[in-house]
Write a structure and sequence with these properties.
The chain is an alpha+beta fold. Helices cover 42% and strands 12% of the residues. A six-stranded mixed sheet has the order 9-10-11-12-13-14. Helix 14 packs across helix 15. It is found in: Nucleus. GO terms for molecular function: histone acetyltransferase activity; histone binding. This is Histone acetyltransferase type B catalytic subunit.
């Protein structure tokens, strides 16, 4: 069988997306780009099997975004049994409307028919001018058929550019997944178009699709205080009412700017327009964002801070330096370091979500710290802080710690108090230096010097009273992953190390037997590989504090992490596992009875790591000697089938059987943990059975047979001679002219006298 790699193509590279316009000579591509993610469509490996020279061209009409898919390849794999090439068309049909699979002729004819009278759906919300043209933001409801049609066409950009993004305009589980969803009235869509006349053809539509954002309305319950007493004649309202007439909490769900228009501050303009719209809407009580990434947070921070600087009351927000800090750490920390009543009124007035507002206040109060205590890398020599300045800085740290603790209280609550304080101090260090670290990016420095691409040139003046570190961070990094160059989005962001550790620890705690959960945790570890030492320490901590099942899952996850690390040539993870392999094995399968059931898990993973070259054979052999001793503990503790049958049970009936004296008791496992382990082992065994038939390279099958074959012995020689004689007899029976001498001649053997025998058909007379 041919090598699998020969027939596999990277889906990110194979899928090319383009925007096209009509010309006299045919369609002309005005922009082309590749997706950032394809695992939601083609699987976690982002590989497409069965093609050589594969190209998937997904073209869009630049204005109405009618799609067309064209799939070409130099060679296609011929199916062998159940092994067959990926049905790309069938896969994409789940993500694109039927019109995307029409003929090339129909698509080109449709694009040619679009005239300058064509306008985007929805009502004109606002417009703004930039150096490359006029941009229009249009607003409408998902109940509008034209808007729903447009969203179904472009919604594939969500999983392609937003990690973990999902669809809103379709329900794959419904009988008709493309119909308007039942909650469409709750969705508001903001469309962003560039309006620029085509220079060489005035008859064409001047509109080009740039991006869009979707907003969902939640009902916002406002409890009256004090509760109003109903009048005697009050009755329940009758009839239907519009959801848009109720107070709501609005949630920004999707935010997409196509790559050709990223890096120009267009995303910040769209966000600013959406924020101002709901700020002026009396029924909108709060504007939240659904699971924002780090880059979007940067854009949001600058936009929100810029707005808050225009609110007069916000200037009154400052650290209350009159508060005395108790020297005894066991005493309660003062709560009103910043006026809580003022903050609550401001937050409700500005309609900013509580967590986001707390971060903004933290940045604002940080900007008020004296230069002697402002967080920095310490390159410039600072003056020694006065007693009052040190006191102000200490209060600010307490204020920031309160926010970090509230944000992670579920995880921190499980940690002992001394370790909790240590973790909070570590987190606070990253909170201080996060804005400073981002300015080290060369790309950011170049953007700082280039005023022509300032993302907020129509916003109020820069926040000159912010420290330089925050100014650098927010004057540049003002876009989500959809408003930055895809290849530079990760390089210009720096996540909070404490938050990264907490999220990774949570992923490790919730691992199960599925490959998807392990690959997800491994992908997260590689995403933040700059923090590899911190994440490796998380693995060790979770191994030492988790239950038996979680330790087994983490052991399997380590293999996935090492595989990805080798694939991306980031060998630090592999080196650290090699260094701590003894500690890892002791944690997964300790000497006591609690780890005996994990001996097989450790042995299986070590064998895989040895086969892949991650761990040397000598290390595995040494560990195996230790595992053999610990494996017997499983029998002694009652964790495996008895080795000596019923001898351990004596003559007692099963209901009265008790362990023999001196036999260690099994670890205390509740029923839920036992059932969970049974299910997870069943899932793993299922994968192992599937793996039996996998042939990864040319020699894999013969290697497997060689390992399964016993050593050559006397019985094998006897059997070989018997088979040989039986074969000679069979051959002789096929032709009556054969004699033993003829057989010797046939096989080129010498007779006992040293003469060569004569072969059949060599002129011998009969």
């Amino acid at each position: 069988m041919a090598e699998e790699g020969e027939w596999s193509a990277n889906a990110n590279d194979a899928l090319n997306i383009g925007l096209v316009r009509p010309t006299d000579a045919g369609l002309k591509a005005i922009a082309t780009f590749n997706p950032r993610f394809t695992y939601p469509i083609f699987g976690n490996e982002e590989q497409i099997f069965g093609y050589k020279g594969l190209k998937i061209n997904l073209r869009y009409s630049a204005n109405d975004m009618r799609p067309h898919v064209q799939i070409t390849s130099k060679e296609k794999f011929k199916a062998i049994g159940d092994t067959e090439p990926t049905d790309i068309r069938a896969v994409l049909q789940e993500h694109l409307p039927t019109i995307a699979f029409s003929s090339v002729k129909d698509f080109e004819a449709s694009v040619q028919k679009t005239t300058k009278e064509w306008k985007p759906p929805g009502e004109l919300h606002t417009s703004f001018e930039t150096q490359d043209g006029t941009y229009e933001i249009r607003k409408g409801s998902l109940t509008d058929p034209a808007i729903h049609q447009l969203i179904t066409r472009v919604e594939i950009f969500v999983p392609l550019f937003i990690e973990g993004g999902s669809y809103i305009a379709r329900d794959p589980q419904a009988a008709d997944p493309w119909k308007v969803p039942e909650d469409a009235a709750r969705w508001t869509v903001f469309l962003l178009y560039r309006k620029q006349p085509v220079a060489d053809d005035a008859a064409q539509s001047p509109y080009t699709f740039v991006g869009y954002s979707t907003i969902y309305r939640f009902f916002y319950f406002q409890a009256p205080s004090p509760p109003a007493s109903p009048a005697a004649d009050w009755e329940l309202p009758k009839g239907d009412f519009e959801i848009t007439d109720l107070p709501c909490r609005t949630r920004l769900s999707q935010f997409v700017i196509l790559p050709p228009f990223q890096g120009k501050g267009i995303g910040a303009r769209l966000y600013k327009s959406i924020f101002e719209h709901y700020l002026a809407n009396p029924l909108a009580m709060e504007l939240t964002v659904e699971d924002p990434n780090e880059a979007f947070d940067d854009m949001r921070d600058l936009s929100d801070l810029t707005y808050l600087k225009t609110v007069p009351e916000f200037a009154q927000v400052r650290i209350n330096t009159d508060i005395n800090v108790p020297d005894d750490s066991s005493k309660a920390v003062p709560r009103d370091i910043v006026d809580s009543d003022l903050l609550d009124k401001l937050r409700r007035k500005t309609k900013i979500a509580p967590r986001q507002f707390a971060r903004l206040v933290e940045m604002h109060t940080m900007s008020q710290l004296p230069a002697s205590v402002q967080p920095s890398f310490g390159v410039d020599k600072k003056a020694k802080p006065t007693r009052a300045e040190a006191h102000q800085y200490r209060l600010w740290r307490m204020f920031a710690k309160q926010r970090v603790y509230r944000q992670n209280k579920d995880i921190l609550g499980q940690i002992d108090l001394p370790e909790r304080r240590e973790k909070l101090n570590e987190a606070l260090g990253s909170v201080e230096l996060d804005p400073v670290g981002i300015i080290e990016s060369p790309r950011l420095r170049s953007l700082v010097r280039d005023d022509s691409i300032s993302p907020l040139h129509d916003f109020p003046p820069p926040l000159i009273d912010l420290p330089a570190s925050i100014q650098f961070r927010h004057s540049i990094n003002t876009s989500s992953s959809t408003d930055l160059e895809p290849e530079s989005a990760e390089s210009v962001t720096m996540a909070d190390p404490f938050e990264v550790r907490m999220r990774f620890s949570s992923q490790l705690q919730h691992l199960n037997a599925t490959v998807v959960s392990h690959q997800k945790a491994a992908a997260y570890a590689m995403k933040y590989k700059d923090m590899d030492e911190d994440l490796h320490s998380c693995i060790l901590e979770q191994l030492e504090r988790s239950n038996m099942n979680t330790r087994a899952n983490i052991m399997f996850c380590i293999e996935h992490i090492m595989d990805m690390a080798k694939k991306e040539n980031h060998l630090n993870y592999i080196t650290m596992v090699q260094r701590d392999i003894i500690r890892i094995v002791d944690a997964v399968a300790p000497e006591n009875a609690s780890g005996a059931a994990n001996v097989r898990v450790v042995r299986l993973v070590l064998q895989c790591l040895e086969n892949k070259g991650h761990i040397e054979n000598q290390v595995v052999v040494q560990i195996e000697e230790v595992l053999k001793d610990r494996e017997t503990t499983a029998h002694d503790a009652g964790l495996s089938s008895p080795v000596q049958g019923d001898q351990d049970l004596g003559d007692m009936p099963p209901s009265q059987t008790i362990p023999k004296p001196g036999r260690p008791s099994a670890p205390g496992l509740d029923k839920r943990q036992i059932e969970q382990r049974i299910e997870e082992d069943r899932e793993r065994h299922k994968r192992l059975r599937e793996d039996i038939w996998a042939i990864r390279d040319r020699d894999a099958e013969i290697d497997r047979l060689w390992e399964e074959t016993s050593d050559l012995g006397e019985d094998d020689h006897t059997m070989g001679r018997e088979e040989f004689l039986a074969r000679e007899a069979a051959v002789a029976q096929q032709c009556p002219h054969y004699t033993p001498r003829d057989l010797d001649d046939l096989y080129g053997r010498k007779d006992h006298n040293g003469a060569s025998g004569r072969g059949h058909g060599n002129g011998t007379s009969h």
